[in-house]
Specification:
By secondary structure, the protein is of the alpha+beta class. Helix content is 32%, strand content 26%. It has helices at 27-34, 57-75, 101-111, 148-155, 184-188, 192-201, 211-218; strands at 9-11, 14-16, 20-22, 41-42, 80-90, 93-95, 115-126, 131-143, 177-181, 205-207. Strands 3, 4, 5, 6, 7, 8 and 9 form a seven-stranded mixed β-sheet that branches. The protein starts with 8 loop residues before the first strand and ends with a helix.
């Protein structure tokens, strides 16, 4: 569990000056944060992700990312908490996570041969310092026409069932994709470029060269 003490985490010139908590159970989001090489803790919020009738997809992911971060930040006010939520939208309809092979098959048929939009909202909240940042990132994904045998094969695997839209861009579902316009990591569930920019802007993440780089600059 996180402590209330400020903690510095360094790796190859990357320094995180706050204790960071990821308020998500998504292994994809954890994998993306791990690419930075900084320490963080995973404490899922386990919130109800049901959409409201009066909200658009961007409003939906923005609200949920904020509520997820807010829930964990209330428990650990010294920590910087990252919440995120992702939806897939096709022809104005939001696709969540399929609960069974029938739902997964229906989603893939809807996506087949068409472009869909992936929205991810992320929020960074630190209660003690009164800091809060929220952003929504949009990517467009074009699928090929998916034959029935490939759909049957895919829905019989375990991959579709914990992913918005019923596919994994970083997994076996990658070969369905013809084109991505926008952030690839956003389609995975966390727009890493924008998250890093926000952390730097908040003064919570810094980068520096190693000793070799500094020596080269002095020559």
């Amino acid at each position: 569990m996180p402590t209330s003490e400020k903690k510095e985490c360094t790796f190859m010139g990357i320094m995180l000056t706050e204790k960071l908590i990821l308020a998500s159970a998504s292994p994809r989001r954890a994998e993306l944060l791990q690419l930075l090489g900084v320490d963080f803790e995973v404490i899922p919020s386990h919130m109800d992700e049901t959409s409201r009738n009066d909200e658009t997809p961007p409003e939906h992911v923005q609200r949920l990312s904020s509520e997820k971060a807010e829930m964990i930040a209330a428990l650990f006010p010294d920590a910087l908490v990252l919440g995120a939520d992702t939806v897939v939208v096709i022809a104005g309809r939001m696709l969540g996570k399929p609960g069974n092979p029938g739902e997964a098959r229906d989603m893939l048929k809807r996506l087949s041969g068409r472009e869909h939009i992936v929205y991810t909202g992320f929020s960074l909240i630190q209660k003690k310092k009164g800091r809060r940042r929220t952003q929504v990132v949009r990517s467009a994904v074009l699928f090929k026409e998916i034959p029935e045998d490939e759909i049957s094969w895919y829905v019989s695997s375990e991959e579709p069932y914990d992913k918005a839209g019923g596919y994994a861009v970083q997994g076996m579902g990658a070969f369905f994709i013809r084109e991505i316009r926008g952030s690839y990591t956003n389609v995975m569930g966390l727009p890493l470029s924008e998250v890093v920019e926000t952390l730097k802007d908040m003064g919570s993440l810094t980068f520096s060269g190693d000793q070799h780089d500094r020596g080269s600059n002095q020559e």
